[in-house]
Structure formats: structure tokens, C-alpha cells
Amino acid sequence: MTELRKRGGGGGDPDSSENISDKETDGDDRLGLQGDMEGEGDGDSKADTPDVPLSSADTDNTPQCLNKALEGLPPRWKNYWIRGVLSLAMIFGFFLIIYMGPITLILVVMSVQIKCFQEIITIGYRVYHSYELPWFRTLSWYFLICVNYFFYGETVADYFGALVQREEPLQFLARYHRFISFALYLAGFCMFVLSLVKKHYRLQFYMFAWTHVTLLIVVTQSHLVIQNLFEGMIWFIVPISIVICNDIMAYLFGFFFGRTPLIKLSPKKTWEGFIGGFFSTVVFGFILAYLLSQFQYFVCPVGYNSETNSFTIECEPSDIFVMQEYTLPAAIQNTLRWKTVNLYPFQIHSIFLSSFGSLIGPFGGFFASGFKRAFKIKDFANTIPGHGGIMDRFDCQYLMATFTHVYIASFIRGPNPSKVLQQLLLLQPEQQLSIFHTLQSHLRDRGMLPAAPAHHD
Amino acid sequence: MALDHQFVLSLASCQLSTLCSCVCDCQSSCVCVNSRLFIHKQVSSFYRWKNYWIRGVLSLAMIFGFFLIIYMGPITLILVVMSVQIKCFQEIITIGYRVYHSYELPWFRTLSWYFLICVNYFFYGETVADYFGALVQREEPLQFLARYHRFISFALYLAGFCMFVLSLVKKHYRLQFYMFAWTHVTLLIVVTQSHLVIQNLFEGMIWFIVPISIVICNDIMAYLFGFFFGRTPLIKLSPKKTWEGFIGGFFSTVVFGFILAYLLSQFQYFVCPVGYNSETNSFTIECEPSDIFVMQEYTLPAAIQNTLRWKTVNLYPFQIHSIFLSSFGSLIGPFGGFFASGFKRAFKIKDFANTIPGHGGIMDRFDCQYLMATFTHVYIASFISLYLYYIAVVNIMMSTPLHLSVSFQRI
């Protein structure tokens, strides 16, 4: 989430005083940091306290057509219009890709991931002036490909089991998947060690760590998003919509009612925006869950039909997407004069998702704000006019995606039976038989299977 | 140690040169120089031998300690692995503090240790749930913790994350982000791999002992070969490593691994997976040894048949696996050591810490082990895959019967 950025025009307007105070705080930061770094005393201190050069993120990037259309307006309104138009464009784009189906969604998630990775790595390069280490860009992209290969291989092996069984080379890749991924990663690791150059050790280690932390944050969570998607598109749409709604609602509440600042990191956030955003997001999530639970297209797990070689989204909806009758507690019964209410259980889950997205999700945004302040950048990049880079739009999404995944794994989905079956089929026949007997006695104890026949004498 | 040595050396040379310049004049200066060199050599060789003795004695002590903890069984091993992990983590974090002068950020030490506990809790919970399935089923609170394990771990981690965000102080943003990243990369390297070591251990103590012994042997053999025959430098990062040491270490480690595999494959104590007996509440290491630990007859290829005049040879299949493990440990394992050397040079430190006299910190001894542990784990998972059995069984047992029967009906 970004605060309102002063773009285009900029000079000689009532907001310039804010600009100046920003500069003052930046100056303080710079002094403070240089004081911290003084004790380094070696040639690398320059790398530790870089002046981040003016990036392209600071220059105006609005397309010409918008500029022309908004010529007559004062700069502040121009800003609002640009942000508003682009927000609507992004929401429309979101609906479009949902309409186009799961394959498109996966491709979009992948491109977002690659763009976020590239933005963060570019910031690392600028901070450390490490453009002159040519190996490093290659190695960063190589590690990205390795980790993606590892994660996609795990996902594909799980969900496209039938396809994998059919093709011989795919079977080999699936069986030794972890070993192949590890070998690929090791090759990159050895290349890193061989590429260590005498004067640039520290820089190279910094970039190595930077790459790995970025991979940890960006790539892991984009794969959690895709795993959520496979559970059913509703698990993808609802969390993302919750975060978008919270962003917009908190902004609007803060705009109209905002008075008490929330946190020093993001001075424009207010308590009124925070709380207003929370309540409106819970309501929004509740309604959205109701709307989406009715369609199989959203609710069914994405399956792969190996005969027709396409994705099928047809199933018998799980229990949480079947309307159920809940008895209201006595207190609410008296006020509303309803005895029972018909709800989808998923709506109750959506309340928890919304609460997390509004209360804890913003910490992802604060983290990104702190990061930007720490490295003295205004935005991650300049991809979206008025909004900044892709990473700026997605910083709150990451915590939400991880939470949704953990939530599904803990409360919705039990162990995946087809996966268990797959693992069982890999074992030796004696082991399979042993598991079968253990399972049989277990089910007999629980009364699911008829009791063992009497022993023959 | 080396620091003391240099200091005394320079002191001796200094005093000697003063003596010479007082007593000698230009004609006899070469005599002075010779005597100065002579005493210089004596002093330095004294310190070198002292160094060698200390290093030698401590190497033997560590190897003896290794045997001792193997003898004492799996629980002791797990405790030792945990303490090594905590010590390595503490060493690396302390280096981070020193590099960034971040002692004045009191939250940070707390947060780093908190993250360590969280990640350990997550990993140990996954391991315990897998291997102590019976125990977990019995105790009600453990069942709750096991069922919602991932959620609880995530919640704990999130609490730490939020504390980090709330602890960001205006003037120290960058420092705090550096320490955050430093902590996470350390966790990734140290904690993940110590848990892989423990998972290897549960497969059978031989999967713990053989890789570690391979790395130790490679260290020692490469050092000895380099000492006696070393001439061609190997890599600029570590100027004392030589190609002769590298190759000599490789061959001797393969032979050593082969012999060690033969010796250990005969005992159930090493070969059987560590099991937990819920009745007696103890670890049992009894089983029918898997096929790879049963002696088999291999027909030698024709070429070797002619030279050795043996038709077949009796080997444990595990010995063939040990050749692959040894090859990795000698050829790729040293890259872990080079990585650590580069790290030390990058941050201008001589050793990670000063825990072991003559050797440095715990991390210095274990830097090669980490790649080996990960490789062994991936090797087991890909080519041996005994643990799938346990995971499959536990997954089934953890399902509720209703869910399970319905699911299987659908399949």
C-alpha cells in the first residue's frame, strides 16, 4: 500500500510543505545511518551507505493520453484521477483474468512473481552498485528458475498425476524430482563460490543473501497462491478481494474521517481508516462469499482431465459450500426476530479471512514501507502510473496468501487422499500389504468395516 | 593462536635487530642477519609445532567425543545436534552484531532467538508428528498440537514478524532490515540442515555416522596430502588448499567410506531405523535389516575379473551407496568450506568464534557438513525412500475415519 505520491506537476502547490518535511526526515535518516556505519572503517563502507541514485521511479510515468485528458485539472486532482482510473483498470483486469480461467491465472501469478523478483533484485543492485558483477544477475535468475522448478514440480506431480504417469520422461523427472532440483541448486551454489572475486566478497555475499531472502518471500508465497487456486478459485479470489477492499476502504475512511495516526512508519495511516476498513471488509467478504459460493466454477477444485487434456471444474461441492441452517444465539434472536438463518459455512470462514486481512495483513504493508524508507526509495518501481511497481500493489497480499494456505491446510482440507494413495503405490508390495492390514484393523476398531471373520479351526 | 605467534615473532625480530644494530657494523651485517634469521626460524618453528600439537590433540579429542555420543544413543545425538545448531546460530548472529554494531537494538537479540525457537518448533513438530505417531495419538494436548501444528507455527512466526515491524526505529531502519535478513538466511542454512541431519538419523544411525565421518576423513586426508605433497594451489579463496590434497583426499575418502560402510553394516544398532516403542516409552533399534544392508554377491565386470582372478565379490549394497556419498563429500562438500572461507574474508574475521582452541568456532568445524547433510537427505529420499512408508502410514492414521472412508469411496 503506498501513500499518495506527489507526481507530475508537483511544485508550488499546497502540498509542497509536506515534500519539505519528507526531505527533512530523509536527511535525518541519512545522518543517523552514516553515524551507525562509521565504525566500519574499510573500503566497503561506501557500499554500506550508498546514496541511492535517482531511480526511474521518481520520474513521471503517466501515459500521454491520460495527461492530455486531465490537462485542465489542478495537480492534486490529476493525481486522484490517475490513481482512480488505474485502480478501476486493475480491478477490471482482475475480473477479466478470472473469467479466462485457471491457466491464465497461473500465468498471471507467475508473471507477477517474476516482476516482483526483478523489482527487488534491481533495488539490491542499485543499493550496492553491483552492476559491475555480471555473474550476479545470471545467478539470481538462475536461482529463481531453480526454486520455481522445484515448486512447480511438486505441484505438477501432485495434481497432474495421471499425465505424469503416462509420459516416460515426465515419470523420471517426477521420481527423482528432489534430487534433480537439489543438483540444479548446487550447481548454482558452486558457481557462486567460484565467482567470488577478491575485492567484492562482501558485496557478493550481500547479493547472495538478498537473492535468497527475496526468493523466500516472493517465490514461496506465489506458489502458495497457486496451491490455493487449485483448491478452488474461490480461495484465490476471496483473499485477494479482501485485501483490495481493505486497501480501498481504509483509504476512504482515512480520507473522510482520519485523525489519529496509526504507526510512525506510515504517517498517512490512521486508526479511523484501520477500524473502518476492518468492519467494511468483513461485511464485504461476507457478501462476496455468499455470491461466489453458488457457482461451481469458483467452488470446485481445479481438476485435470487426462482424456480431454483440459482443466475441468466440475464436482459435487464440498460441505462448506452447501447452504446450512444455523440457529441464532438467543440475544440476536430477540433483536432480529429471526430464529434461524441460512448461511454457507464458507461465509463464516470468510469472516476469519477478512479479520486477518484487515488486522494483520497491513503489517505486510508496514514491512514494505519500512523497507522503502530503509533503502530510501519512493516506490519499488514505476510500472503502474500513480501506484508504483507491482510489488507496491502486492505487498499486503503475501501475508494473506500464506495465511489462506495455512488456514486451508489446518481447518479445511485433511490429508489429500490421492496423494497418500500415490505414495502408497510407490512402496514395495510387502509394505503395501502391511499398511493394508494396519488400516483394516484400524477401521475395524472404529466400526467402519465388519468385524474379522471367526478363525477357522 | 596464529595471532600470538606473529606478535611474538615480530617482537623477537625487533629486539634482535636492535641488538644487531648496536653491536654490528656494516661489515658483519650479514652475520647479524644470519643469526637473526636463525633465531626467527627457531621461534617460529616452536610456535608452529605448538600449534600442530594443540590442533592434533583437539582433533583426537573431538573424534573421541564423536564416538562417545554415538555410543550413548539416539537421544544424546539429537541433543548434541541441537546444541551444535544453537551454537552455530549464536556464532553467526554475533558476527552480524559486530559487523553492524547493532548491540544497541535490544529487541533484535530477542527477536533472533524467538525466530530460532519458532522455526525449531515447526521442524521438530513435523518430525515428532511423523515418528512418534503412537505417542501423539495417546495424549490429548499433543493431538491438538499435532493437528493444528502448521497453524500454530505460522501464528508464532507471525507474532515475531509483527513485533519486528512494530520495533522499527526511525534512525535504524536499514540496520534492522539487515539483521532481519541475516537472521533469516542463518535460519535457512543452519536450522534447516540440522533438521535434515536428525531426519537422516532416524533413518538409521549409519546415515548419520557415515556422512559425518566422510567429511571428517576428507578434511584430515586432504590436509595430510596437502602437507606432504601439496604444490598446486586449488582456489584463490583458500590459498592453503592444493590440488594434490584435493585429489588425494578424494581417493582416500572413497576407500575409507567403503571400509567404514562394511564395518557398520553388520550391526543392527547402526542399520535399523530408530523406532519409538510406546509401551516401554523408549527408543528401540531392532528390525529386519533392509536389503541394502544384506550381503549380496556381485559379478565383477570381465576386465577386473582378469586382473584379480575373482569371479564374484560379496558386498553390502550400502557400500556402493557409500562410494557416491564419499564422492560428493570430497568433490562438492569442500565448496561449503570455500563458502565459509569467502564469508570470513568478506567480513574480515579469522574464525567464526574462539570456542575450540586451534580450530576456531563450532561453525568452522561444521561448515563442510551442511552440504553433506542435505545431500544425504535428498539421496535417501530419492534412492532409498524408506521414510515414505512412515509418512504414508501416519497420514492415514491422522485422518478421521469418516473422512477417510468417504474419500476412499470417491477414489
Automatic annotation (TrEMBL), chain A:
<feature type="transmembrane region" description="Helical">
    <location>
        <begin position="270"/>
        <end position="292"/>
    </location>
</feature>
<comment type="pathway">
    <text>Lipid metabolism.</text>
</comment>
<comment type="pathway">
    <text>Phospholipid metabolism; CDP-diacylglycerol biosynthesis; CDP-diacylglycerol from sn-glycerol 3-phosphate: step 3/3.</text>
</comment>
<keyword id="KW-1208">Phospholipid metabolism</keyword>
<keyword id="KW-0444">Lipid biosynthesis</keyword>
<keyword id="KW-0443">Lipid metabolism</keyword>
<keyword id="KW-0812">Transmembrane</keyword>
<feature type="transmembrane region" description="Helical">
    <location>
        <begin position="135"/>
        <end position="152"/>
    </location>
</feature>
<feature type="region of interest" description="Disordered">
    <location>
        <begin position="1"/>
        <end position="63"/>
    </location>
</feature>
<comment type="similarity">
    <text>Belongs to the CDS family.</text>
</comment>
<protein>
    <recommendedName>
        <fullName>Phosphatidate cytidylyltransferase</fullName>
        <ecNumber>2.7.7.41</ecNumber>
    </recommendedName>
</protein>
<dbReference type="GO" id="GO:0005789">
    <property type="term" value="C:endoplasmic reticulum membrane"/>
</dbReference>
<comment type="function">
    <text>Catalyzes the conversion of phosphatidic acid (PA) to CDP-diacylglycerol (CDP-DAG), an essential intermediate in the synthesis of phosphatidylglycerol, cardiolipin and phosphatidylinositol.</text>
</comment>
<dbReference type="InterPro" id="IPR016720">
    <property type="entry name" value="PC_Trfase_euk"/>
</dbReference>
<feature type="transmembrane region" description="Helical">
    <location>
        <begin position="232"/>
        <end position="258"/>
    </location>
</feature>
<dbReference type="InterPro" id="IPR000374">
    <property type="entry name" value="PC_trans"/>
</dbReference>
<keyword id="KW-0808">Transferase</keyword>
<keyword id="KW-0548">Nucleotidyltransferase</keyword>
<feature type="transmembrane region" description="Helical">
    <location>
        <begin position="346"/>
        <end position="368"/>
    </location>
</feature>
<dbReference type="GO" id="GO:0016024">
    <property type="term" value="P:CDP-diacylglycerol biosynthetic process"/>
</dbReference>
<keyword id="KW-0594">Phospholipid biosynthesis</keyword>
<feature type="compositionally biased region" description="Basic and acidic residues">
    <location>
        <begin position="20"/>
        <end position="31"/>
    </location>
</feature>
TrEMBL record, chain B:
<dbReference type="GO" id="GO:0016024">
    <property type="term" value="P:CDP-diacylglycerol biosynthetic process"/>
</dbReference>
<dbReference type="GO" id="GO:0004605">
    <property type="term" value="F:phosphatidate cytidylyltransferase activity"/>
</dbReference>
<comment type="pathway">
    <text>Lipid metabolism.</text>
</comment>
<comment type="function">
    <text>Catalyzes the conversion of phosphatidic acid (PA) to CDP-diacylglycerol (CDP-DAG), an essential intermediate in the synthesis of phosphatidylglycerol, cardiolipin and phosphatidylinositol.</text>
</comment>
<keyword id="KW-0808">Transferase</keyword>
<feature type="transmembrane region" description="Helical">
    <location>
        <begin position="105"/>
        <end position="124"/>
    </location>
</feature>
<keyword id="KW-0472">Membrane</keyword>
<keyword id="KW-0548">Nucleotidyltransferase</keyword>
<feature type="transmembrane region" description="Helical">
    <location>
        <begin position="151"/>
        <end position="169"/>
    </location>
</feature>
<comment type="similarity">
    <text>Belongs to the CDS family.</text>
</comment>
<keyword id="KW-1133">Transmembrane helix</keyword>
<dbReference type="GO" id="GO:0005789">
    <property type="term" value="C:endoplasmic reticulum membrane"/>
</dbReference>
<protein>
    <recommendedName>
        <fullName>Phosphatidate cytidylyltransferase</fullName>
        <ecNumber>2.7.7.41</ecNumber>
    </recommendedName>
</protein>
<dbReference type="Pfam" id="PF01148">
    <property type="entry name" value="CTP_transf_1"/>
</dbReference>
<keyword id="KW-0443">Lipid metabolism</keyword>
<comment type="pathway">
    <text>Phospholipid metabolism; CDP-diacylglycerol biosynthesis; CDP-diacylglycerol from sn-glycerol 3-phosphate: step 3/3.</text>
</comment>
<keyword id="KW-1208">Phospholipid metabolism</keyword>
<feature type="signal peptide">
    <location>
        <begin position="1"/>
        <end position="22"/>
    </location>
</feature>
<keyword id="KW-0594">Phospholipid biosynthesis</keyword>
<feature type="transmembrane region" description="Helical">
    <location>
        <begin position="242"/>
        <end position="264"/>
    </location>
</feature>
<feature type="transmembrane region" description="Helical">
    <location>
        <begin position="176"/>
        <end position="198"/>
    </location>
</feature>
<dbReference type="InterPro" id="IPR016720">
    <property type="entry name" value="PC_Trfase_euk"/>
</dbReference>
